[in-house]
Design a protein that fits this description.
Strand content: under 5%
Number of helices: 6
Structural class: mainly alpha
Distance between the termini: 107 Å
Helix content: over 70%
């Protein structure tokens, strides 16, 4: 009977040792868990800040400003290299689409950007007038936006 008694005591002893080992393991890992949690929170906070920053930069006003700058740079390049007006208009539409700008032909940022591009390319007043007639047509708002953009660029 002694072997059975020992076996029982041995089982109880090893269960106790197992529980004690588990508690010891938890006690050792607990500080790591807190550190991991703090690290995760810090990482989460950083992601949230990055996401907010990204959202702010993709606001409608920011997208429109980026679009206007794209139009300015493209127009300056186009004026220097030349090309067909049809190709110029097509690329303006592509730039608008890339920036999620709808109805670019009625968007004043398009015409201000064109004016800025003409100013950046150092176009003379006759060239400004020619582009204005070709692109703004008889719309005084578009013509004014082009003129405003042209005058805003440093000479």
């Amino acid at each position: 009977m002694t072997p059975i008694g020992r076996g029982r005591r041995g089982i109880v002893g090893s269960s106790f040792d197992l529980v004690l080992g588990a508690l010891l393991l938890i006690a050792l890992l607990l500080p790591l868990g807190c550190s991991f949690s703090a690290s995760s929170k810090s990482s989460s906070d950083s992601s949230s800040a990055s996401s907010e920053s990204s959202s702010a930069s993709s606001s409608p006003a920011s997208r429109e400003e980026q679009y206007r700058n794209d139009v300015r740079d493209y127009t300056a390049s186009y004026v220097k290299s030349g090309g067909r007006m049809e190709d110029f208009r097509k690329r303006l539409g592509e730039l608008a689409k890339e920036r999620d700008i709808t109805n670019w032909e009625e968007n004043m940022a398009t015409y201000e950007g064109i004016g800025r591009g003409l100013g950046k390319a150092k176009a003379n007043p006759v060239e400004l007038q020619t582009y204005t007639q070709n692109l703004a047509g008889s719309d005084p708002k578009k013509a004014e936006a082009m003129k405003k953009g042209y005058e805003a660029e440093p000479k």
